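To: structure desk
From: M.T.
Subject: fold request, one chain
Message: Could you run this one when you get a chance? Sequence is below, nothing fancy, just the single chain.
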Amino acid sequence: MPDVVYHVGSRGGDKRPIFDVVYGDRSFFLVLLGLTVNRYGWRCHSYCLMGNHFHLVVDTPKANLDRGMQYLKGRYAMWLNEKCGRVGALFERRYFDELVLEEAYAYELVRYVALNPVRANLCLHPRDWPWGSYPAHVGLVRRPAFLCTDLFDALYGPGPRGIALFDHTIDDGIALTELARTAGVRPRSADRRDAPGSKGHGRGLTPVADLAGRGASARRRSGPSIRPTRRLASVSLRFPEAEASEQWPIRSNVPNVARRSRSAT
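Reply: Done. Structure tokens follow.
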């Protein structure tokens, strides 16, 4: 079970598409992701490839996030530029990352990454999006060798019961998304009581590192090892493909999330 988890992502320059540009580019990116995981000793817990950006949930035991992202994005940009006969930067900046410090945000992050294509109106359910890790996590397709299940098992528990709990949170997220669309508002990222400086800030939240002791026991029983401290509203992070979000890097009002925006090189 990881002590430190990163939410990492990057978007195309000028909000241009980076996928579905040439045949097989999404598959090639996933191959590169697997090579990056093996080469730099990463553990990839979740991923989702959209149209002009991608999301990863990883931990880096060797503290080499910079080097791994440089390899992944650099190799992909070189390959795609060669296929398209173009030169110049493919991505708008190096990358962004958020350091996930608390259990509540880990729950919401895993759900958010899975729901990205649903919120972008690309599919009705994440099971229908083959370019995310959701189908592999719930057993609909074979799990890629580079996809780690430690975080998923620690949050929801292994086996059918863990999958059922995860699906329940996904269904809740879809319902909240539809409700927000109907009301014409964007859903909040977390309960207001968790906002920094509020009276409820930090209460009932477990650091991600404290899940480590529960990971092993979760694998020995069929039920989930832990449950969310409270039901969270869906994260207000959206990147509709038709109209790319003006917000980048991601801004979320989740407590104790360390953010670092990488400047362009």
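Reply (cont.): Strands lie at 5-11, 43-49, 53-59, 96-100, 258-261. Let me know if you need anything else for the meeting.
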